[in-house]
Amino acid sequence: AQDETDGLGTENDVKVDKVEAAIETAKAVLPVPPVVEREEIKTTEVEFDTTSTLDEVEVVEEAVDENFSLETAYVDLKVKKIQNTLDPLIWQATTVGAVNPFDGLIKLTVDNTPAGNQIVRTASIIDDVDALIAKLPSAVLVGEGLICAMSVANYLKLVVEFRALDSNFIPLFDQMAMGFTYPGTNLKIVAMNGFGAVNDIMIYNQSNMFVGTDLESDLSTSKFWWSADNLEHRFHFGARIGVQIAIPEEVVIAS
Q: Strand locations in the chain, DSSP E?
């Protein structure tokens, strides 16, 4: 009798059925992405090419302990490089003068929020944050996920201001790398690397900000290979990305 497990026999059919069932199960438990009601997110193509010499790989190897593989450490290194490139675009990008192919969150806020939601920066960051809080609708102010975003430099100045008022002031970091809860509120102060040298301060709800991408899987949009000609690892990442604010009236900014 012919062995049914050969070629495309019964055993392989069962395996395919199990894989398809697993995929459908995964789809069922994936969270449904929020819908942007005001305007669809416009995305634009971004690409990154990076290389790593043998010396860089050796540095990664030295940093890896027995619980991590070289491959994992190397991929993490590339992810951080991509993130450091994307963060400034997400916040600072501007189409003025064709500098960037899309507008970032700061430009969208300045262009679309009502004039009453915008103030001019002063010498005191505490005063600016207090003034921005006063302009927020009550429903937004008492909600969860309220963020006050600023540059790392302004964040450090804010801490200095608090210490001038209270020498014992110690920020409660709330499991954030550089952030704390603003006293008397549920507002989270967060230092954003993507702000760079931008002096603006923004308050918004996390659920009001969106980043859109066509990135369906890392395998379909990235390539990683060893170049024998140049003796280096090469990595290429390509995708489309854009940002949007769902309800500009619920965002306030000090510029």
A: 44-53, 118-119, 146-150, 179-181, 188-191, 201-205, 209-213, 222-227, 232-245, 252-254
What is the tens place of the pLDDT at every residue in 74-90?
777 777 777 788 888 88
Q: How far apart (Å, rounded) are the C-alpha atoms in residues 203 and 182?
A: 12
- Span 167-180, pLDDT tens digits: 777 665 555 567 88
Q: Which residue has the tokens 């200095």?
A: 160
**CA pair distance 232, 52, nearest whole angstrom:** 5
Any bridge partners for residue 48, and if so which? 237
Q: Is 92 helix (H, G, I), strand (E, B) or coil?
A: helix
Q: Which two tokens stand for residue 7?
A: 């070629």
105, 71 contact by CB (below 8 A)? no
DSSP E strands, 139-221: 146-150, 179-181, 188-191, 201-205, 209-213
- How many CA atoms within 13 Å lie on the side-chain side of 90? 18
- Measured in degrees and rounded to the nearest 5, phi and psi for residue 234 equal -125, 145
Please say whether the beta carbons of 114 and 219 come within 8 A: no
CA proximity to 43, closest of 86, 3, 80, 5: 86
pLDDT band at residue 48, thresholds of 50, 70 and 90? low
Provide the token pair at 92. 């600072």
- Strand ranges (DSSP E) for 77-231? 118-119, 146-150, 179-181, 188-191, 201-205, 209-213, 222-227
